[in-house]
Amino acid sequence: MTVKIGLIGAGGIAQSHINALKKVEQAKIVTVFDLNTEGAQKTAAALGARVTESADALLNPEEIDAVFICVPQFARGDLEEIAAKRGIHVFVEKPLGLELESVGRKEQAIREGGILTSVGYVLRYYDTVQQAKQYLQDKTVHLIQAFRIGGSHPAPWWKQQHMSNGNLGDAVTHQVDMIRYLVGEYKEVTAQFGRNTIKTQNPEATIPDAGAVTFSMESGAVGTITESCISTYHSGSEIKIIGPNFFLQLTGNGKTLTIIDDQQNITITSKQDPVYEQDKAFVEAVAAGSGEAILCGYADGMRTLAFTLAAYKAAEERDTVTI
């Protein structure tokens, strides 16, 4: 079965998906929409696809089986709800939104529509992350240490808190999600955020330039996440997961895995393209009518968003917030 795909958004992240979908045998992008008409036309011409006059027109179940929503979180409106009501399967980039109420409405529409969904927590698809998950299944974790440090997104909207949810919500959400995926659900969170540099470098920006988050898990484990989006001379990401009889570390957004215990001291670097693995899993799920191979559905992605929003609330209220 060929899965006919509509693409909403033709920017950088969409191009990444296009490159992956070209390698997926069952995938065919047939329609494209972007507010940047020139960009949409260029993308569509390269694919042999058609440009639609609106996102609503693209969401036509007679033309497409699935849609890839690759526009920023502030610009999605009710696209997921429309797709769900029309029986169109949805891939949507992370994060799912800016607050839980509208995302919750979308999740309900998706459940009622019975469609398949996949959320762009792409790091789950690394074989190294899968190996880490399997290793941790019977382990007791007591400490988690994570960080993500680097530069900011070039788009002006990204530096506005009400449009991006900041670095924690838009980028570090990958580390937030991976901790959930590997160790279990969060329980409580406290946080502090700073604007020591960004307020002078970019006075119009409203996002923090650094954050320090502490949390507890339902399992009883505790941990920290530190992050910065203004770091000129150092960048990277890391998650350390520590138990009484093992040490596990994921670096490079999960690409490299280290495990140390009484039986082994190994380091493995993945050779996979996780975007391809993610998109292939979604397309094949749509073709088969089964979501078993999808590693993050909409309800799952919503729980990751809940942690981010709780962290910002905890910082604002200077209190511990239960998730």
Note down, in words, how this protein is organized.
This protein has 323 residues and is an alpha/beta fold. The protein folds into 2 domains: 3-121 and 275-295, NAD(P)-binding Rossmann-like Domain (Rossmann fold); 123-271 and 305-322, Dihydrodipicolinate Reductase, domain 2. Helix content is 36%, strand content 26%. It contains 12 helices and 15 strands. It has a 9-stranded mixed sheet. A 6-stranded parallel sheet has the order 3-2-1-4-5-6, with helices on both faces. The longest helix is centred in the last third of the chain and has 20 residues, at 298-317. The chain is globular, with a radius of gyration of 20 Å.
Features:
alpha/beta, Dihydrodipicolinate Reductase, domain 2, 2 domains, nine-stranded mixed beta sheet, six-stranded parallel beta sheet, 15 strands, globular, NAD(P)-bd_dom_sf, Gfo/Idh/MocA family protein, GFO_IDH_MocA-like_dom
List unreliable stretches of 5+ residues: none
Structural class by SSE content: alpha/beta
In terms of quaternary structure, the protein is single chain
CATH architecture group name of the largest domain: 2-Layer Sandwich
Q: Span between N and C termini?
A: 41 Å
CATH domain class of the largest domain = Alpha Beta
CA-atom Rg in angstroms: 20 Å
Per DSSP E runs of 2 or more residues, the count of β-strands stands at 15
Q: Give the CATH topology of the largest domain.
A: Dihydrodipicolinate Reductase, domain 2
Task: Give the helix tally.
Answer: 12
User: Could you give me the name of the CATH homologous superfamily of the largest domain?
Assistant: Dihydrodipicolinate Reductase, domain 2
How can the largest sheet be summarized?
Answer: 9 strands, mixed
What strand line-up does the widest sheet have?
A: 14-13-12-11-7-10-9-8-15
Work out the count of structural domains: 2
Shape: globular
Protein name: Gfo/Idh/MocA family protein
Domain GFO/IDH/MocA-like oxidoreductase: 148-243
Domain Gfo/Idh/MocA-like oxidoreductase N-terminal: 3-121
Organism: Paenibacillus hodogayensis
